[in-house]
Amino acid sequence: MKLSPIIVFFLFAQFLSAQIQDKVDFVHAQVLIAPTPSENRINGSVTYQFDIIEDVGSIYLDAVDMEFSSVFLDDTKIDFEYNGRKIVINKKMEKGDAHNLKLDYVAKPKQTVYFLGWNDGVRDNEQIWTQGQGKYTSRWLPSFDDMMEKVEFDLEIILKQDYTVISNGKLVKKDTLPDSKGYLWQFDMKNPMSSYLVGFAIGDYNKKKVESSSGIPIELYYEPKDFTKVEPTYRYTKHIFDFLENEIGVAYPWQNYKQVPVQDFLYAGMENTTCTIFSNQYVIDSVAFVDKNYVNVNAHELAHHWFGDLVTETSSEHHWLHEGFATFYAYLTEKDIFGDDYYYWQLLETANALQRFSGDDGGEALRNPNAGSLTFYEKGAWGLLMLKDRVGEEAFKKGVQHYLNKYAFKNVTIPNLMEEMEKVSNTNLEDFEKLWLQNPDFPYEQVISFLQENNESINTYFELKNRIAEQPEKTEPILKRVWKRLKSYQLKENLVLEYGDKLSAEFLTDIIKSEELKVRQAVILSQNKIHTELKTVVEGLLKDKSYTTIEAAFYRLWTDFPQNRSKYLNETDGIIGFPNKNIRLLWLTLALVTPEYNPDLKALYFDELSGYTGSEHHFETRLIAFQYLKSIGGFTDSVLKNLVESCSHHVWHFKKSAREILNSFLQSEGNTARIKGLYPLLSQQEKQYLEKTLGE
Predict the structure, then answer these.
(1) Residues 439, 518 share a domain
(2) Cys staple from 612: which of 243, 403, 544, 625, with CB 3.0 to 4.6 Å?
(3) Is residue 438 scored above 60 in pLDDT?
(4) CB of 60 within 8 A of CB of 86?
(5) DSSP per residue over 146-202, as a string?
(6) Cβ 45 vs Cβ 103: under 8 Å
């Protein structure tokens, strides 16, 4: 059978992936890029230095949907082959040779580089940022989808606008270009890394500088409007850095560290080497800190700078070595900051989640390359915790240090780690590997026994649960008998969450009046309906120092005591809540559906609520606004236009939710015609999506 030239080239490129790249060592990359935000375009140039390990007849790089204007090998222009995904240079090169390869290109990445706020008419919200996790950096930089290729990447970024640019490594200089045509930002890395860890962020930022106890410069970026949130957002950052360096026992391997919050980030955070990018939903005030803070993500992404950045998996089969370690050390960091009880109750929560996931044969082995996040992160952390318990803390720490030092700036497999652990502990860990790495089930009974043995409050929790299970009609007397002796607020919180709907108003009142914030919060979260006897004390929760508590109390009071709705609306007016504006959006919705409340202001309330569906707002805020507007029948044309736009959003779970809301809207008679009426206002991409959705 004769194959088309395109297919032949594709097969050839696949062969190259397996046969050639291990004969070539790419050492250094000098990258120059110039983003053009208005066109979502990057003009780039990259020069690679590489060594030939064995004789080869060609080399290649991964480069998705790019246009190449010229390619030079050792300063000589050379022909190349390109299939839209790989660029191949056919040239015989001999073992021991060193070469330079320069590529000039244009990229219009549909993912990986995100241009936000440049066309929305809102000032000072413009951003550009990257997310290369997996095999995505090759969408904007000819590079390597294979994590095995580690290169020292030095970036230069040209930007016509005067925004702050942050990238990997040390900022060497910022130069003004001739004729005031922009600025050149130059960054220098000292050590190699995999391509997926190359990243940058651009926006309107200020920064706070701190320094680790070991002398590593740390830069904490924030938008000027968020200057009052710097302390609660980055609270404990220096402590986290110092703790991890000490706990891991290997010096931080990079020259500096930076953290940058961005709008509409795809995940919680990403550990680009020396430059963590994270969601600006973690930029919080002091009230939010108690319920939603950055501590865990902060520690997780920093831990990746050892586990993932310094030592890197060879393939996804070994992803535990990244996410399991980062999650494990993040939990240890929280233990150091918030105490033992906080740590063990977090572990119990994850154990319960894993047990539910593992039921009905739904579990996944840690060696499964297609496993999900819950497995790699939480089961992975549990695996390391039980490995530490098995070999002992001293041997575990020593094994981790040997592993990191031996494979620094290299790639690793799970056997590499296990070999070091067996050496230092003088222990055969074959049974551990079978139970924790190869077994799809979660060893729930084992971990519960571990938790009960190591934490008194969890042991008490299970004892009380067993006692109540034997005499459910005596739930309150059993709890009352021991309540004042219980020292752990986590224990009290979980008991209230589980049994709060079975407790008397008198007992719950005492709890609200006397207990810690999270225990008070548990009371309101446990109630399906507020008893009249609880009304006064729950009203006091509207002033509690927790946005979660205020939101829950406000909704329950508004629902259960309709005669006082205006009073509750007055008391909560002006409270915004978390960065996603959870309380304000609820308030606007309830204000709109309370007929007697400020009827002259309804139009203003509706305009504000519908305005939160616009693209300048975070996708979490937009989704909540869409959901509330759907519930009250508030889909105006402008809201519908924003909903259609959201159906093509880069954050997949927001996109999925928006599409579900739109599909639900289209089920009602006449709404298809309303959507079609929006066509003149839509982009070509949005029209195409609607045509597909409507079957046209």
Answers:
(1) no
(2) 625
(3) yes
(4) yes
(5) STT-EEEEEEEEEESS--EEEESSEEEEEEEPGGG--EEEEEE-SS-EEGGG--EEE
(6) yes
Pairing of strands 257-262, 217-222: parallel
- At 269 the three-state DSSP class reads strand
Residues 530 and 432 in one domain: no
Asked if the model's pLDDT at residue 74 lies above 60, the reply is: yes
User: What pLDDT score does 120 carry?
Assistant: 82
Asked which of 259, 274, 303 is the last residue of a domain, the reply is: 303
The residues pairing with 56 across neighbouring beta strands, listed in sequence order, are 93
pTM beyond 0.85, yes or no: yes
Burial label for 513, CB within 10 Å (0-12, 13-18, 19+), is: exposed
Predicted local confidence at residue 403, as pLDDT: 98
Lowest mean pLDDT across 180-184, 284-288, 342-346 = 180-184
Q: What is the pLDDT of residue 1?
A: 42
For tokens 């259960």, what's the residue?
560
Contact between 295 and 234 under an 8 Å Cβ cutoff? The reply is no
In the predicted model, what is the mean pLDDT of residues 628-641? 96
Shared domain check, 23 and 94 = yes
CB 326 within 8 A of CB 376: no
Buried residues in 430-444 as b, exposed as e (16+ CB within 10 A): eebbeebbebbebbe
Q: H or E segment at 235?
A: none
Q: Is residue 579 part of a domain?
A: no
Give the bridge partners for 66, in sequence order.
Answer: 107
Residue 643 predicted with pLDDT over 60: yes
For residues 348 and 245, state if they share a domain: no
Judge whether residue 13 has pLDDT over 80: no
User: What DSSP character marks residue 680?
Assistant: G
One domain, residues 124 and 241:
yes
| List of residues 6+ apart from 378 with CB closer than 8 A | 327, 350, 353, 354
Residue 11 pLDDT > 70, yes or no? no
Q: Tell me which of 572, 593, 615 is where a domain ends.
A: 572
Measured distance CA(171)–CA(184) in Å, rounded: 11
Q: Which two tokens stand for residue 4?
A: 């088309």
Higher per-residue confidence, 310 vs 19: 310
Which class for 86: exposed (0-12), middle (13-18), buried (19 or more C-beta within 10 A)? buried
The single-letter DSSP state of residue 376 is: I
Band of residue 695 on the pLDDT scale cut at 50, 70, 90: confident
Task: Encode 569-605: b = buried (16+ Cβ within 10 Å), e = exposed.
Answer: bebbeebebbbbbbbbbbbbbbbbebeebeeeeeeeb
Same domain, 184 and 43: yes
HEC string for 620-668: HHHHHHHHHHHHCCCCCHHHHHHHHHHCCCCCHHHHHHHHHHHHHHHCC
For residues 171-191, average pLDDT: 92
Domain of 625, in residue numbers: 601-696
Q: Is residue 451 pLDDT above 90, yes or no?
A: yes
pLDDT in tens, 207-219: 999 999 999 999 9
Q: Count the domains in the chain.
A: 4
Q: What is the CA radius of gyration of the chain?
A: 28
For 266, residues 6+ apart whose C-beta sits below 8 A from its C-beta are 131, 650, 651, 652
In a domain, 593, yes or no: no
Residue in 303, 293, 304, 119 with CA at minimum distance from that of residue 197: 304
Note whether residue 590 is domain-resident: no
Classify residue 669 as exposed, middle or buried by CB count within 10 Å of its CB (0-12, 13-18, 19+).
Answer: exposed
Residues 75, 100: contact at Cβ < 8 Å? Answer: yes
pLDDT at residue 367, as a whole number? 95
Per-residue confidence at 684, pLDDT binned at 50, 70, 90? confident
Whether residue 421 sits in one domain with residue 275: no
Within 8 A by CB and 6+ apart from 179, the residues are none
pLDDT of residue 151: 97
Which DSSP letter does residue 112 get?
Answer: S
